[in-house]
Amino acid sequence: MNIQSIVKAGIFCFAFGNLPAQNPWPKSTETAKPWTRWWWMGNAVNEKGLDKELTALSKAGFGGVEIVPIYGAKGFENQYINYLSPEWMKMLQFTTDKAKSLNMGVDMAVGTGWPIGGPQVDEEDAATKMIVQKYTISSGEKFSEKIILKDEKQKNLKTIKLDIVTAYNEKNEAVVLTDKITNDGSLNWNPDSGKWTIYAVFTGKTLQKVKRAAPGGEGYTLDHFSPDATKDYLKTFDKAFGNSNYGIRSFFNDSYEVYNADWTPDFKNEFKKRRGYDLSPYIKYLVSNEENERTGRIKSDYRETLSELILSNFTKDFTNWVHSKNSKNTNQAHGSPGNLLDLYAAVDIPESETFGSTVFDIPGLRRDSADVQKSDKPDINMLKFASSAANVTGKQLISNETFTWLTEHFKTSWSQAKPEVEQVFLSGINHIFYHGTTYTPADVPFPGWLFYASVNFVPENSLWPHLTGLNSYIARTQSVLQSGKSDNELLIYWPIYDQWANPNGKDIAFKVHNVEKWLQPTPMYKNLTNLSKMGYSLDMISDKMIGESQSESGKIQITKEGSSYQVLIIPELTYLPETTLHHILKLAQNGASVIFQNEPKDISGNFEVEKRRAELKSLWAQIKFQDQGENIKTASFGKGKIVLSSDIEKSLEYLKIQKEQLTETGLKFVRRQFDGGKYYFIVNHTAKDIDQLIPLNYTGKQAVIMNPENGDFGVAEIQNNSVRIQLKSGQSLLLKNTETVDHSIAKWNYIEKTDSPISLNQAWQLTFKEGGPELPKSRILKNPEPWTNFSEDSATQSFSGTGVYTTTLVLKNKKADDYLLKFDKLYESAKVIVNGQEAGIVWSIPFEINIGKYMKKGKNTIQIEVCNLMANRIRYMNQNKIQWRNYHEINFVNINYKAFDASEWKVQPSGLDGQIQLFPLYFSK
């Protein structure tokens, strides 16, 4: 066969000869390995169980755990431990000591369940909302009503107060009446003329409690806008921890899921201090949805104030507190009404999350519509908020809560997890946290304690024996992605004031689950998507970050530790603060290149509008554009250049900003720079196989291909700044391109031809080594086929575990350079053993493995240890009404949040199926 035939047949693969001593992989650390969220159900943990689980996690390739206590299992109440009690702290200390002995790290949530809150949150510190009541009054009428709160749920609260009372007539003339209300709620005012509507604003409470709280963690959710609430909350941890951090690497705060919290007791004063005027005369505009300019301006100022309050009064205080403990913090900013970029940047480890399942074009990748969320799917541009904040400010680690509701319970294979985690890597994230792992006492039978919405990375999972395949892949990839700095060339401004000026609603929550409303319709999102497809690499930047940026030698940089960028893009927008435009022009003055997609139309907010609007226009007038034709205007500005065009691609071409052409093949990439070179992480999520020279912006003097699935590496072929890449659909690789040449590294072995495949459609012995509820009987197969085909043996229909397929093969000669064992269908993963030697784990598409170095001339024994899903055993348990889900709170639900029941499921195919072939491979010389 020639190389074209090989590509068409899809049989080339990663391969090379003996490994040299010189290893290009970065040193592996505990942070490079995947971590997992570790739920302590009811905090019913003990030292023996903690020791056993941490040891199992370590052997499976985990680098650390993140402790999140939640509700408990019924019947185990006498084993519950109250959160932060002396006994709980003793278990925590044991955990961190044991983890340290295993070279693992430990993080923990600052609370139980989510969102942040607990018994230490009293009424005063609880999440707060504004409650508005309206009244009417006319001149000459006696106003007999009392302006007191009518909400029955709020009446018994001691902290309720009347904040603002303002009356409006038909002409929208306002009179602030706050000081005209007596202690009993009587109004001491009567209008001289006309009919007036009175708006009374009370400070109320959301009354939201912590969701999925653990014993000792129940209570109100926190007021994130109050500095006193944050400080009071953390005092409980000060009491429990003393001067120690108990070995905690990072304290974690989950996503902001506080509902209806849109106020704080001191909001009126904070608003005036931050926005420059009293909100009281404008309260009508804040609580209405009138489509007018004034409403949009008032709401913009209100939302900006909320953003600043959560940044200064929660996020920064949280960071300062963990630093006082000589620890770090991890924060999920999404879901909050704040500027996500600034909130992520204010912590040590910004964390995003993926929820749901993505559609990939990879042939053979299972994605049953019945087993995935109907609406939610991960969005790479949403993930980039966290990575952008980290990249521009120089944070080494960007984490991600990964695989939440990836599929229906018990139906997730490691092959399905691979492209999802690759998409996370492509967003710039480099520190994966699985969702997740549940602590289970040793005496709890299969399937152990489980948490809903999770892929359940637990030893009871029948796929657990092969989890090291996925974990090793992630560890190798992250060891590279945690090295050096991000190497994105473009910055794109987030025009958040266009969001904040929306006259509808009050607060705007920037959630993972509603990106189709606030993110996807925006010009910025379209630019992010289109430019990435073209081959450009981007990070986002906020107004605050622009104000902190410097320009030197034509590059834009926010911090010394952060990345530097070639161009700042201002996407199509309506509102741009004059202060931000001032900072942009200062960057250009000092040598930066800036692209405006349109002329900013207006300033944001309601303070000194005409004065600030005039300043914006005056600043813009300083740019003396020259028409270059083809929808491009340009201006030299100091040492820099400013381009005005709706066509960003043409603008970048004008500025001679080079894109990566590799995306023209459909390949995706993320790039990092280090002293002396650059890394490329390249992924093939297309339906086709790639074998060609790929042009790169940087090749250096040597390019080393590194295979993250098995650690193999070799020097790549380079021609005219192009690197030859062979990637099958579903595969990925890393390139290490350097200015130095290491002659000790052998050449990468490209597959040039292959002989006709050797078919293994022959007799196989099938036995079963572990799993349940019982082991099916052994049998001799004429051809390899799934064990679930043998319905006459009922055990095969309910079995989840490991089946072993064994056969022999006589190799008449061993002339090929290597031999590729390829499975047509595999349910779900396999360990391959050749002549008693482990060749590796086959766990991802394409299902194949090189086994040449383990084979010999003559008789060869091949064993395939196949692990299947948990689904069939759970189906059996539900059909036979064997109790296994019995928890407090939400118990255990299916992907549609209904009571879980697998009894009507079809039997999931398990084992080997279709063709099994051995391809003799010949490498290029």
TrEMBL record:
UniProt keywords, alphabetically: Hydrolase
Database matches in SUPFAM superfamilies: Galactose-binding domain-like
Origin: domain of life: Bacteria
Residue stretches making up the Beta-mannosidase-like galactose-binding domain: 785-888
Biological process annotations from GO: carbohydrate metabolic process
One Pfam entry name: Glyco_hydro_2_N2
Gene Ontology molecular function terms on file: hydrolase activity, hydrolyzing O-glycosyl compounds
UniProt xrefs under NCBIfam families: rhamnoside_JR
Classification via PANTHER family: DNA-BINDING PROTEIN (PUTATIVE SECRETED PROTEIN)-RELATED, SECRETED PROTEIN
Protein name: Glycosyl hydrolases family 2, sugar binding domain
Native source species: Chryseobacterium rhizoplanae
